[in-house]
Design brief:
heterotrimer; A alpha/beta; B mainly alpha; C alpha/beta; A: alpha/beta; 4-stranded antiparallel β-sheet; 12 strands; globular; B: mainly alpha; MetI-like fold; 11 helices
Chain lengths: ~325, ~300, ~325
Amino acid sequence: MDTAEPVLQVTDLSVSVGSTPALSNVSFIIRPGARVGLIGESGSGKTLTALSIMGLLPDGLFASGSVVHDNRELLDLTEDQLCEIRGDRITMVFQEPMTALNPVMRIGDQVAEVLRIHRSLSRAEASDRALELLAQVRLRDPLARMKAYPHQLSGGQRQRVVIAIALACDPALIIADEPTTALDVTVQAQILVLLRDLVEDHNSSLLLITHDLAVVANVCEEVLVMYGGRIIESGPTTQVFDSPHHPYTSGLLAAVPEIEPGQERRERLDTIRGSVPGLGQFPSGCVFRNRCDRATDDCLDDPNLVAIDGSEQDGATRMVACFHPIHAQSTEASPR
Amino acid sequence: MSTTLAFDQEDPTDAPVTNTPHERRQIGANLIIGATIVTAIIAAALVSFVWTPFDPTNIEISDRLQGVGWEGHVLGTDHFGRDVLSQLMVGARNTLFIGILAVGIALVIGVPLGGLAAARRGWLEESVMRLSDVMYAFPAILLAILLSAARGPGTSSAMIAIGVAYIPIVARVTRGAALTVFQTDYITAAHSYGRGKTYVFVRHVVPNISSVLIVQATVLFALAILAEAALSYLGLGAQPPTPSWGRSLFEAQTFFRLRPALAFFPGLAIAISVIGINLLGDGIRDYLDPKLAEKS
Amino acid sequence: MNDPILEARAVSRSFRLPRLSLTGKRPEIQALLDVDIIVNEGETLGIVGESGSGKTTLAHLLMGLDQPTSGQIQYRGNDIATMSRAGLRKLRASMQIIFQDPNASLDPRLKVGTIITEPLRSLKINTDHQTRLAELLDAVGLATGAKNRYPHEFSGGQRQRIAIARALAPNPKVLVADEPVSALDVSVRAKTLNLLQDLKEQFDLTMVMISHDLSVMHHVCDRVAVMYSGRIVETGPVEDLFTAPEHPYTRTLLSAIPRLRGGSLLVDESTDDVEGASGERSSGCSFAPRCPLVHDVCYADDPKLLSLGVNGERSVACHAANN
């Protein structure tokens, strides 16, 4: 049993848009050094989860529940206190590296700025450290790049700079929201490997938010699957992807075209019936029941996310929120 | 019908995301207030054709500079003893006429010009934009003086001068907004099924930049009212005795210490109509946007 | 193999950029260089490449939406540059395109019914528009009520269906799909791909699919052309090309795909930071700076796209592979 205190403990996190729940009782932990993937389609609440953790919810939205980092309840902190944590202990990497960087500021200054704010380093010290960081993100000729402006770099190079900024203060947790969606395939591979390695080198944890299951399979050892504003399945990535318990996870995996050399390609991809309902139009009880082939009257109740016995692996437990999970040995989900 | 039930049976066709049918367009507060003000001004102008409390041009020196409410003069009299309310009502005609036609000239010439520049990049765009730079750099007042010299001073000269001065503004705004629309995929799609650039501009680009144009037009309308006032002050606008808000305002200057109210009313009329027209513009823009129509 | 329906012969396209200085020459970007490609009737041809590789430029040229700087595009053996007006209208009807971003490909100010029947009006096709509209909505799996709504009332996947319905309206022979599923969610993506495959059979379409996603390509295409820096570096039947890639760039691409199961990303660290293709080119093979098999000859000579083996189904432009 891993007894180290989690880097982030999210308990019953809920967010409502007006009277419509957009996130319902989201609970998970991120252990030190863990790389966790958060998977979901649009409208699943994955981005809302990240924004709640960072205290960056749009005006008019409020999170309830609890988000604990380093013995502090993040939801109770003031904006000033949050600013101390953001960019220092918890940092973010965004999808579009161009908008995440200031177009009129030199690369080196942008990296150094974070260090000057959070580490109160002198100009020279910060600049030295920035150079070191740019070398760590394997930017070619970092000394020359220090003087460059964002538009002079390619998309992949800019994302490297964003990662350097995110790593600058050796954060406890990096939240990466679709960090490679805007990049080409070969660049995506480089950035993913870089992110994976550097998170390890800096003893940080990673929460990787993406719609791309294959990206999670290659970077994260744990995965959380979201649908309709809740986590419906979680556990070690290989286990979840090899034998998904939730019908939604299973459907999602079957919908991905895969290149399997030597195997006949499938004529048609498997699909999930219906489409993701709009906000506020999810059914009562199990949010997936209107699209689920296994649904019965049991599913009119809301299933809890419960652990599956004996599934623990390296401290990560498999959990599923389903009354009729696919080939799970001993699960009895209890109604909420 | 509950949404849940609709999904319960196997349904090969997807229901649209919003389950409410297309809703009526929303009439916002801006639209209501703006429309009310503008309607009131138009009504005042129209009524002035058949009735005004007094003859607006009737000079009665003995009644000069009387206060509000004096012997039936609801807003008092000016330095020639003319009724202020009557003058304002007739002045509204002049204001509307100048505003509508000046903006009309600017739009009718500026929009196609800007569209042309956006549609045909290259030397044509360069020439159109440099030409509009030249016009932009040419002072409108000078233009008005030249026109007055050629055609004689008067409302129509002022109106043409203002309209022409606004052409480059409209052309620039149109070009900028149209450039982005021309690069969207639905324009490429339209070309792929054989639509030419002119059709695409009228059918797809103009509706999609209409919000920008409407706002720009109302801003220019408001500016035109102010410009008319300035030109009238220089003697290049409406000629006496034709009443004009701008001239009334500047004539009132002389008596400002004696009768501040005399400057106040034409000033108020200008301010209210400028606000009203701007609100109307914002209101129409929101009304025409199908995305805003759906929110309730 | 069926007859070619579309053919590009030695097509190049360059774009001139705005002047950088008052006196300097306007810089040029070579978007396509000497591209030869054949699209056979009834097949699905995939064009794979990263951003800046020229794949969208090629698609626009094939459709006659843009004119090549040099070279020729032929539709059923006729040069489209010399076509008459009537011929061009026919051509427009026979080739349609769908785009990546379904938000940007539909005019937000028009109702869905108007959008889908626009091509019929534009091309003056004499059918009952309402009947055709109902057919098309049904074919793409949308309810008839959709025609009275605006695009923003639909989800991304549904909007892509609307775009597909519009493209099918004039009964085209060739459908060009430019990254048709890249902007869609995983489960919607699968449905859209299935739909495209169904429609291809139902309407006897020839498809040209442009994508950077090799898994999608592998799933739907019969033949694939790999583009790099404005030229085609390898073509061949999809299975052959994916199991035995000849060009080092194709190999790099294939190894970069994140796999769902049991895969681990392989990154050649030496290629870090050499990305995409810039407009400037020096002599020789444009992949040479990133290539693990690079020789002196690669910097001196630009390799030609040569067919491999006997049946001529595969071609590759690489000095190492051609020897």
